Amino acid sequence: MSWLLKSSIGKKLIMSITGIALVFFLIFHAAMNFTAVISEDAYNTICALLGANWYAVIATGALGALVALHFIYAIVLTLQNRKARGGDAYAVSVRPKNVEWASQNMFVLGIIVIGFMILHFSQFWYKMMFTELVGHHEVSLGGTMVSPQDGAAFVKYYFSQTWVVVAYLVWYVALWFHLSHGFWSAIHTIGWNNTLWMNRWKVISQVLATILCLMFAFVTIYFYARHMLCPFA
Ligand code: HEM
């Protein structure tokens, strides 16, 4: 068991498994958010289900542990790779033709994704789940008091602001690059590396990253456009 924590391949395996689990969360999250476009009531029902109950709190804790493990092992592996290159991060300044840009920038992309997540948490998670957990039944959103379970009100409020929309779109671009390489790379580490299937997994990775990011972007742009066209809806 200690090989899992000590060897390079063991650490990569932990990153791959936590990464794939996070992709499953993103599939659920993108589908959940897309519900807001179809029915605000349905979206609020889901948000209420994910509110302050023990199942939701345990799921949040598990999710936090996955992100923490993924991030800690990313730091460990990055430092290890740098050391192996003699501390010179820029030893190879010209990228070989068949190496993707994302594969060489996964750590920086990950930092950008986590950075925007802090913004996202302060806007959504903190004002929704945390507020409910500490026993408040109302929260101020731009001066108006709303229920922390009224997810649709949060989405409409934040996605009516241009800077938020621009920031989230930048986030999705970083997420696209991170996922399009990360998912493929995880499958590779797990051992699915015959040539034919590796090429297929590369395509599947890009399609998955594109669908997920387009779903997030669609929700963001839909509520922004709706606010621009009818501000009081
Ligand atoms: C259209 C874009 C998005 C919307 C409308 C949205 C909405 C929400 C809402 C309403 C919550 C709070 C749920 C609750 O606590 O009841 C939440 C939590 C969260 N979001 Fe998002 N989100 C979006 C994009 C993203 C993206 C791109 C990521 C990751 C890269 C992400 C990661 C998370 C995480 C990790 C949580 C905490 C989940 C938990 O507490 O278990 N979200 N989001």
Structure notes:
- The structure is a single chain.
- 78% of the residues lie in helices and 3% in strands.
- It has 233 residues and is mainly alpha-helical.
- It has one domain: Fumarate reductase/succinate dehydrogenase, transmembrane subunit (3 helical TM bundles of succinate and fumarate reductases, Up-down Bundle), CATH 1.20.1300.
- A two-stranded antiparallel sheet has the order 1-2.
- A hairpin with a 2-residue loop joins strand 1 and strand 2.
- Helix 2 packs across helix 3 and helix 2 crosses helix 4.
- It is globular, with a radius of gyration of 20 Å.
- It starts with a helix and ends with a helix.
- The mean pLDDT is 91.
- Protoporphyrin IX containing FE (HEM) binds next to helix 2, helix 4, helix 6, helix 7 and helix 9.
Poorly predicted regions are none
User: What is the CA-CA span between the terminal residues?
Assistant: 56 Å
Give the ordered list of helices and strands: HHHHHHEEHHH
CATH class: Mainly Alpha
- What is the alpha-carbon Rg in Å? 20 Å
Strand order of the largest sheet: 1-2
The number of helical runs is 9
Mean pLDDT comes to 91
Helix content: over 70%
Principal-axis shape equals globular
CATH architecture: Up-down Bundle
Strand content: under 5%
Corresponding CATH superfamily:
Fumarate reductase/succinate dehydrogenase, transmembrane subunit
Integer count of domains: 1
CATH fold label: 3 helical TM bundles of succinate and fumarate reductases
The chain-level structural class is mainly alpha
- The total strand number stands at 2
Report the biggest beta sheet as strand number plus sense, adding barrel if it closes: 2 strands, antiparallel
